[in-house]
Amino acid sequence: LADQWDRAHRQKRGGGLTPVSLNEGDTEARQRNEPADPQTPDALFDRAWAEGVLDQALERLEHECAAHGKAALFRELRPFVTCESEVTYADLAGRVGLSVSNLKVTVHRLRQRYLELLREVLASTARTPREVDEEIGDLHAILSGELPRS
Question: 10, 65, 85, 101: least buried by Cβ within 10 Å?
Answer without folding.
Answer: 10
